[in-house]
Amino acid sequence: MSDTDGDHEGQKPKGVFSTLMADGDWLYLKGEYKKAIESYTAALTLKPDDKTGFVGRSRCHLKLGQAEDAFKDAEASLKEDKSFFEGLYQKAEALYYMGEFEFALVFYHRGQKLRPQIQEFRLGIQKAQEAIENSVGSPSSVKLEIKGDLSFLQKDEEVSLCCRAQPITAIQHLTREKKQQTQKTPKSEKTTKQLLGEFYSDKKYLENLLKDEDLVKGKTKGGERLQDVIQSCLTYLDTCTEFWNQEKPICARERERKLMQQKRSKPRHSAPSEPAQFLLKSLDDIDAELTSGNAEGSLKKSEEVMKIVQRWSEKDVPNKREVLGSLHSCIGNALIDLGDMDKALVHHQKDLELAKQCKLPDAMSRALDNIGRVFAQIGQFTQAIEFWEKKIPLVRGGLEKTWLFHEIGWCYLELNRLEEARDYGVRSVAAADEIADEKWQINANVLAAQSELKLGNFESCVSHFERALTLAKLQEDNSAMSFIQKVPLLSSYTSLHHLFSST
Q1: pLDDT at res. 187
Q2: For residue 304, what are the contacts with CB-CB under 8 A and spacing of at least 6?
Q3: Where does 261-397 have alpha helices with state H?
Q4: What is the pLDDT of residues 304-328, one digit of tens each?
């Protein structure tokens, strides 16, 4: 008896950890990054060396603009395995947003060596190189001397944050040289205006204030000279201008602005110089709008990008149909949130058609999932089941399998097809047990119990409800406990339990 209890207690942290990680992933997708950090942190207290947990928390820190914290978590994920590619990508991203473009480039390159098929590393290399060129200058305009110790080039995989205290000498000289050139040749007013946007008028206002000799001689209540206050504001705006020009050159800003403009005097038929990077950013923006609750903004952005992509040729974007499918999916999801199910269904069906044409299993799975979701929400459960059951062979992860079996079972229950509902409920329980996800173990057991209850299999019904109630207590899920205890027949829950135990 004690051995069994010991085994159960040993399994409990594993289940709790999986639940916390799943919560963190879900909250991240919803855009609730602070709550996601709390879930990942709680998970890491159970498994302090889990590299996936560190990567998840690092991504959240980056979304919140906490690059230093993101870097620390990325470093922690690489502590035991220096070739962990997800950790390498997070480390490169953190370094990039800290302004350490040269070191970010090193780790983007290292990640690409390990996983050349992952395009995020290639895009990272491109943006890091662009940022370096904007701050240092084009390689064609720089002459390097081959002298000194170049051994560090053979040790790029061992570069760490401590190296940043002693920058590479060549880069240091080039940066200084570039700054001197910048001082000699200030940016044009047009460039500054485009970079600053609405802050440009503030800059001009402050510059005019400096010309008022009587005003600048005055002092604030705190004793500071107004001239110093105004000058510090101007210096800050100049710093912002420099950074924004490095982060995203003005030519790229202008190109994107023109592409995204709804009303154009002359439609453009060519793609941006980097379609992949443009699309990746656009899809991130679309997803961010939807997860933040702005379905209208997500829909508008999706439709704008769709118009741009439709004008591109297959030469510009070889995977054009795949991209269009993703955009149809984004539009469909936004329309679901807006309650326009008919139009949402049309777009998700177009996504499915394109996925079949391109023979993309993941895209087919996504489209089947969304079509089933639309039918379920409008009460057409037979159609929902039809599409969800087509998705089953395409499912990969245990969590997705658990959810899918539960939703299909729930639809069968709504149709009063009780044996099918019970069977899918049991399959969902087995899938949830396999990944030790306690929340889905509760949901799946409740579905199985409800099906058994309607079938008149009271002993099996009570067994499933009893397990669900035990899990709900462990999770301190009051809503689940309340629901289970209020189910008809379970008002005599204890007596039934004793009855079955004695037979």
Answers
A1: 52
A2: 260, 262
A3: 275-291, 295-311, 320-337, 341-358, 361-377, 381-391
A4: 988 988 888 877 778 888 889 999 9
